[in-house]
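Good day; I would like, with your permission, to put a structural problem before you. What I wish to show you is a protein chain and, alongside it, a tokenised description of its three-dimensional fold. I would ask you to consider whether the tokens describe a fold that such a sequence might reasonably adopt. You will find the record immediately after this paragraph:
***
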Amino acid sequence: MIVAQGLVTDGFGVHVAALGGCAALAGEFRAANVSVTHLDRRWLQDPVLCVRLKRLVARLRPDVIHCWGDLSAMYGRFVSRFRRAPRIVVGQYDIDPWKANWRWTLERRLARQGERLVVDSRVVRDWCVEHGMDADAITIIRPGVPPAPKSDMSRDELLRELRLPAKAKLIGVIGRLVPEKRVKDLIWAADLLRVLHDNLRLLVIGDGPLRSQLEQYARLASDLDHIQFLGERADVWRIMPHLDVLWNASENRRHSIAVLEAMAAGVPVIASDTPFNREFVVENETGYMIRLNTRAGRAERARHTDHILTDREIASRIGAASHQRIAKHFSAQRMVQDYVAAYADA
């Protein structure tokens, strides 16, 4: 969405061809003057979708087709062989350890001369090269986020809305509630930290298949006064600036946009020590990195959080350094410019 908006602002015509399941974003795209066509994919390999996509490309005659993800790339590469097609730019933005060998073989065979493969990290680049993709055709474009908007409510108003104590310390957890996010570890760490900060509140923002299980776990490990499950929120931007710290415990097969957005808002981040997070968080400067799945790691998380909650100088220093790092290296404007350059190169 950020890239599409930036391209429109720069005078590009953008059309989104949705394979399926983008109804929630369709309104946002149209509000940004981005046309949307729903292709309604029925199964993994859908020949009817190929025909629809071929007709759409013939009608629009775009200069570049940007395929976001390996599934759309499979269709985009296939259709591009039926005509003198536009240039293909393929985006690979995560690591999928379960991708079958036949998928890699198909992608390598469908890849065209001059095609650009765009990845958003060195981790994904190395993974693609390891599976036989041409290293010279890969461009790294780091993710970016727009400047953090100011909340339209004060901290006191937020606390009243969430029915929290006036002096509550707020720790945020943002993301889909699935096993690889390791939210159980964070519930355990929050209960440990309650010994030092009884006014601590863990706000879990997001939904997913593990929500009921995690709520039950929270009741057993702590209580639902100290841990609140807020579900999906379209107004995270209102809450984010008021967090004292953002926690991330994900195993990370892709970048965490929540980490980027927290840093942009000047919120200290305590994240899992993974290759993806290391590209954002500078240890002891813009946040802290925690070892995954260890008792010592949970204790480290509690200790670092205690320092942030009790020493405002440390919190301010980390928050300011985080904000500056995002503005300098991970801005949305820089990301859009890099995509424009990648399209020109294609």
The longest helix spans residues 312-329. The longest strand covers residues 87-92. The chain has two domains: 2-144+331-345, 155-326. Residues 155-326 form a domain with the Rossmann fold fold (CATH 3.40.50.2000).
